[in-house]
Amino acid sequence: MHKFDELDMKIITELSRDGNTSVPNLSKKLGVNTSVLYSRVKRLVKKKLIKKFTIVVDESLIGIGVRATMGINRDPKLKDQIHKALLKTPEIVVISEVTGRFDILLTLRARNLEELHTVAIEKIGKIDGIQNTETFVELQKTDKDPIYSMTG
């Protein structure tokens, strides 16, 4: 395991809030020399603590109107085949193997409820080895910015 300190945690907290923040602005905010901050960020990328810099899209502006979570139970013998089929379904944005009453939790997005229904019944429901599904439509979502700290 790599050693990271409190400054590293402050850097990733700030960058997770706004990955577009410039190094000079971030150095002022954290009270750290610009060259020190730049080398720290570079090291965090090299050590793979920072996997990538990305964007957050307002999906409603591109026609995504429905988000849902789907719980799936599957035939364990067909695990790999099912996973490959799920990866090919563009409406699925996250696939998580979990403990509990489901084997898999999916995060899906669709233009509307009709499209979600089609994805659930015609695409996911017809995958060989899917035993049953339960879909939870998102009514409201509040994103919370993470705070990273060495002290928990």
From TrEMBL:
SMART domains: HTH_ASNC. The keyword DNA-binding applies. The keyword Cell membrane does not apply. GO terms for biological process: response to amino acid. GO terms for molecular function: sequence-specific DNA binding. GO terms for cellular component: cytosol. SUPFAM superfamilies: Dimeric alpha+beta barrel, Winged helix' DNA-binding domain. Keywords: DNA-binding, Transcription, Transcription regulation. Residues 4-65 form the HTH asnC-type domain. This is AsnC family transcriptional regulator.
